[in-house]
Each structure stands twice: as C-alpha cells, then as structure tokens.
Amino acid sequence: MSERAIGRSITGPLRVRSLMAAPPAGIDQFDTVVDAARRMRTCGLRAVPVTDERSRFLGMLSDRDILEDSVAAGQYPSEVTVGSLIRPGQASTDPARIADEALLAIIVAQPLAELPVVQDGRLVGMLSVADLAVPLLDQLDPSALDDDLFWPDDSRR
To answer: Is residue 152 part of a domain?
Structure first.
C-alpha cells in the first residue's frame, strides 16, 4: 500500500507513524487502581497507559482489568497498584511498521481494538481500527469486489 494510494504525494509504504493518534497521559505503576479509574473517568478513556519510574511503557490497564482483576476479586482498589494488574505480553507495534491488513488483524484481536505504538520503550501513540481501516478501504478497487459482500440478499441491486 502506498501513501499515494490514499491521496498523498509521497510514495512508499504507509507507516504506522502517519496514522497513529497521540497517546493518552500515562499513570505510574505505583498509583492505585482508584487513581487510574479517576483518570479514565475524567479523560473519558476505557484504558490508560501504565509507565514505570523512568516513563517506560509497561502496558495498558483497561476498565475491564480493574473490574475483573481487582473489584470482582474482592481487592480494595485503594490498596492495589496498577502495576500489579498489568498483564505480561501485551501486543504493541513500532511507528516504522508498514500499515497493512496483518496489522489490522492484530488490532481487531485486541480487547479495545487499539494498539499501543511503542518506540525505544516509550509509548508514542495509539493506533485504532478506524485509524488503519479507512486507508486500507480507500485503496480497494470496488470493481474487484463481489457484490454479494455488500448486498447479499439481492434487495438493493
């Protein structure tokens, strides 16, 4: 996929850095679950990035993580640190990665349909399904698509 294919003058593969959104402000791994929940509520977020004391990205903490791993587990959210709820092995991508269908599949598989963009251990952006799907759809050749994909019941042909 080239940037020219989506109306840009620069040729070459489309990279994550040109599509990603700025990351939300992170929360320290030693802050409490209550602090994280308040940040999410104030900022209208379903997840917040968690960082260490050197501002290195550790992972995303979602509202669902808080509910399932703290509240439903009978923990006191004011006594639980967000770092203790971070799940190891969370997916992320690099800003230099080519934005393609394989990356879209990775994002769709994420619980919040977003993927952290990490460079040198620091969160530099977020990539959502919409950020990536629109350029991918723009490059499709409509004449090559099967009409049944969009109108399977013949009612709109």
So the answer is: no
Instruction: Tell me the residue type at 14.
Output: L
CB 110 within 8 A of CB 47: no
Strands across the sheet with 57-62, in order? 27-28, 47-51, 57-62
Using an 8 Å Cβ cutoff, are 87 and 108 in contact? no
Residue corresponding to tokens 């460079």: 119
- For the entire predicted model, the pTM comes to 0.76
Each residue's pLDDT tens digit, 99-119: 888 888 888 888 888 899 999
Please indicate, yes or no, if residue 146 is contained in any of the structural domains.
Answer: no
Residue 34 domain boundaries: 3-141
- Give the whole-angstrom CA distance, residue 14 versus residue 16: 7
Residue 140 to residue 108: CA distance in whole angstroms: 19
Bridge partners of 57, per DSSP, are: 51
According to DSSP, the β-strands at 122-128 and 114-119 are antiparallel
Chain length of the chain? 157
Question: How many domains are contained in the chain?
Answer: 1
CATH number where 41 lies: 3.10.580.10
